[in-house]
């Protein structure tokens, strides 16, 4: 009997939602689409309603991230221009020359797979797994908080109806979030020029990629020969990909840190309750604004701040190393300084879509200490050479820290010392090895 009552209440709730999604409810579907961050396009509105109706019929309790992928690919395809064979040939040649130039300035070996030239839609497909990995903790937190608030604020006469529909509400909320993520990633596809442009390892550790359409657009506003722009961006992309292939632990460490930070993000239930209490059915854009301006995500905890500082340090170290190596490899380019400054400013400010992702998920992906990290790498290079510089990526324990960025001279002094003054851990390992090799004091001798 209890199961029958629950099923009946769920059916009642589904009928109510179906009426709403058919356009017979109080909210105009066009306004619902606006709340989801979608343009006022009849086809997009119909697609949104179809997805929500599908979510109602889904028995699972997870988020269908295929919706985000489909949304992002559709948006990216709208701005995609197919690159011409001659354009692709130019970039392929730039990548070949860039690889030769990098061989002259770093011992980090070449990639074992050929770089790819991707369309914006292809970039979306290859990178979406990482975007969903970053966004899932926030999406789940929103769904949990929304369900909790609705249960706490539902009139008593509707409790029975809602009790059988919580899973459905989670699916609907997850669908709206997935479509928003798709919107953000689709917009981001029109801003990035390469696989490593965002700084995080979005592609496989051995994969480098350029987006021809975006590369040509990047250079169109600069009074610089396009060949120089192409070569500079190709060197940067190959350097980034080579680093993550060489330091195989770096990708895992980076993504583990990002995931740990994201999993500690939670949604402010009080903010959702306040939003629900003042919600105007005729102005559903309030919902979109609340989800994209970061107001639902409470201030960072001390643990999150510390985790974010570690992430920013890793980002800065990676980007700083790439900057220094790229500068060394592109000395033949007269305009390399101007291109480098354009890249730095672009990374420091980020584009509209990157800002939208930061507020949607609560995670900024900008290397705030990029210039300081580049200064550190350059000093190591100048004082000790490129081989010693690149050796710092051979093991996670050797990677410079935030303190090294603060005081690069101390780092150089320590490296020049050659480790002849072991720290406590090194000494303990040395003692253990000596002990195991049989170098023990003889009986009667003092240890």
UniProtKB/TrEMBL annotation:
<dbReference type="Pfam" id="PF10103">
    <property type="entry name" value="Zincin_2"/>
</dbReference>
<protein>
    <submittedName>
        <fullName>Putative hydrolase</fullName>
    </submittedName>
</protein>
<dbReference type="GO" id="GO:0016787">
    <property type="term" value="F:hydrolase activity"/>
</dbReference>
<dbReference type="InterPro" id="IPR042271">
    <property type="entry name" value="Zinicin_2_N"/>
</dbReference>
<keyword id="KW-0378">Hydrolase</keyword>
<feature type="compositionally biased region" description="Basic and acidic residues">
    <location>
        <begin position="437"/>
        <end position="447"/>
    </location>
</feature>
<dbReference type="InterPro" id="IPR018766">
    <property type="entry name" value="Zinicin_2"/>
</dbReference>
<feature type="region of interest" description="Disordered">
    <location>
        <begin position="415"/>
        <end position="447"/>
    </location>
</feature>
